[in-house]
Amino acid sequence: MTAHLWPVLFALFVWWFSTGIIMFLDGLPRRTFKWSMIGATAMLAASFWGLHASSTDLSVRGAYIAFTCGLLAWGWQEISFYMGYVTGPRKDPCPEGCSGWRHFGHAIQTSLWHELAIIVAGIAVVLLTRDGQNQVGTWTFMVLWWMHQSAKLNVFLGVRNLNEEFLPEHLQFLRSFLRKKPMNLLFPISVTVSTVIAAHLVSLAIHSSGSFARAGYDFLAAMMVLAILEHWLLVLPLPAASLWGWSLRSRGAVKPFEVEVVAGFLGAGKTTFLRNVLFGHSDRRTVVLVNDFAAVGVDGSLLRERGADVVELPNGCICCSLKSDLATQITALVQKWQPERVLIEPSGVADVAALMGVLGQPALKRQIRALRVLSVIDAGAFLRDFARMRGFFEAQARVADVLVVNKADLVSDAERAMVETSLRGLNPAASIVPARFGILLSGHKLPRATSRSGEPAEHAHHHHHHHADAPEFQSCVVSLDIPCDPERVRAVLLRTAEGAFGRVERLKGIARTRIGWMRFDLAGGVPSMEAFAADEAEVPRVIAIGNDLDDAGLAAAFADCAQDTPLLAPA
Ligand SMILES: Nc1nc2c(ncn2[C@@H]2O[C@H](COP(=O)(O)OP(=O)(O)OP(=O)(O)O)[C@@H](O)[C@H]2O)c(=O)[nH]1
Description:
Helix content is 48%, strand content 15%. It is α/β, with parallel strands linked by helices. Strands 1, 2, 3, 4, 5, 6, 7, 8 and 9 form a nine-stranded mixed sheet that branches. A five-stranded antiparallel sheet has the order 10-14-11-12-13, with helices on one face. A hairpin with a 2-residue loop joins strand 7 (431-436) and strand 8 (439-440). Guanosine-5'-triphosphate is lined by residues 264, 266-272, 299, 348, 406-407, 409-410, 436-438, 506, 508, 521, 523, 528.
C-alpha cells in the first residue's frame, strides 16, 4: 500500500502547490506578469524537453518526471490565460439580456486563443512522446484537459459555487459568463464519467505489476479523483478558498472603507445631496455607485461633473434579483479604486432593505468600516406621496440612520414640522435634519457614521424582505438631439406636471440650448431648470418615470422644443 502512497501524495501536493503558485503570481501587481510569463515559458520548454527525454524511461523516476512535466506543460496554459496573454478576442462582459447560443458564442470568444493553445500544446506533447512507451506525461496533460473543459462547461451552465473570489480584477468580466444555479444537467454526467474513469485507473494501479506502471496509474488516478473533487466543490457548500488562502494573499489587501447609502424616493434630492457631499470632500478617495431607474441614467453625468469616479449599475432597482451582481460589483470597484469611501445612490424605487442585506453579506461586511444610511425626503411632496406609498416610506425610514428633510424652501415651517413629526413616528431612533438643495440648514449637523458593530438590529432583520413595498413604474427615454429652446422645455415640463402625458412621477433630462447645456427636472410635481457643465460627449436626453406614460406624446412634445420651430401663434 505504501508503494501507492508516495505517488498519490506527490500528485496531490504538486497539484495543490502549483495551483496556489499560479493564483499567487496572478495576484501580484501587473508589472510582474511579464516575468511570470517568461518564467512559465521557460518551464514549458523544459517540460517539453523532459517529456521527450523521459518518454523512453520506464523506471519509477521516469514516471515522476513525465507526470511533473505533463503538469508543468499544463501550468503554462493556465498562467498564460489568467495573466491575460493568451485569452480570446472578447475582453468584456456579455451584454445584458444575451442568452442561448449567442451567449455561448461570446463565452467561447473570451478564451478562443487559450483553447487553441491547449490543442497545439496537446499535439506537441503527443508528438514529443510518440516514440516512447512512457505515456504518463501525455495522459496527465489529457486528464487536466478533461478536468478543465468539464469544469468550465459546468460553471457556464450553472453551479452553486462559482468560486469567483479567485478571479483577479482584470478578469472580472468573466463573471458575466458564470451562472449561479443549484445544479445543471451536465453535472451528473461529468461526475459519472469522471468516476468511471477514476475507478478504472484505480483498478489498473492496484493490478499493475511493475513499479513504473503502478506509479503512472497512481498519478493518473489521483488526478482523476481530484477532478471529481473539484466538481463536487462546485456544488457543495465547502470553503474551497481555504485550501489556497495563502495564495490569495498576494493581492493588494483592501483597506476597510466607509459606506454611505443615500436613499429616497424619485426626485427627493439624492443626487443633489451627493453632489454637495462630494463638493465638500474632494480630498478623500470616493467612489459613487449610482443605480438610475432607467437604462440611460442622468445621475452619473451629474455626479461626474463633480469629479467623482462614478460606477453606474445597469437599469433597474437594486433589489433581490441583482443581489449577487451588486456584491460582485462592489467588490470589483473596491479592488479597482481602493476608495476610502463608497457612496451608493440606489434608484428612487429600490428596495433599500435588500440593499442592506447585500451590504451585510459576510465577505463585504468585513471590509466595511462604517455604514450610514440616509434617506432624503422631499418635504414638499412627502405628505402627498406618503398617503399613496406608505409601505415604501416606512421601509425607507426604517433602515435610515438619518432622515434628511430636503426642499425646506418649498414648505412653511409648520408643514416641515408636520413632515418631521410623521417621520419621527416611522423611526424614532433616526436623526432628522432639514436641508435645502442637499445642504443642511444652519445649526444642523450630520451624526457620525455608525460603526459596523453598532449597527441597528433593523439592518440585519430585513434581508429577505420583499419588493412589495416599492411602487411599480415604467420609464421612457426620449432623445433630444436638437438645440432646445428653454422656454419651450419649461412649457413641456408644466404640461407634464398637469398630467398631459400620463402619470409622470419624475422626469429628468439634459439638453443643449443655443447658449449652452442645461438640465431640467420635474420632481415632486415641481419643474426646474439649471445650467449644467456637461461633457462634450454628453448625449442630450430625457427620462420620464411613471405610469400610463404617453411615450409618443412626450417624444413629440420634446421634438417640438427645437430652437427654431416657431411657437404656435396664440389665437
Ligand atoms: N426647491 C428645491 N429643489 C430641490 C432641492 N433639492 C433638490 N431640488 C431639485 O429637485 C430635483 C431633483 O433632484 P435630484 O437630486 O436629481 O433628485 P434625485 O432624488 O436624485 O432624483 P432621482 O435620482 O431621479 O430619484 C432637481 O431639479 C433639484 O434641483 C431643494 O432643497 N429645494
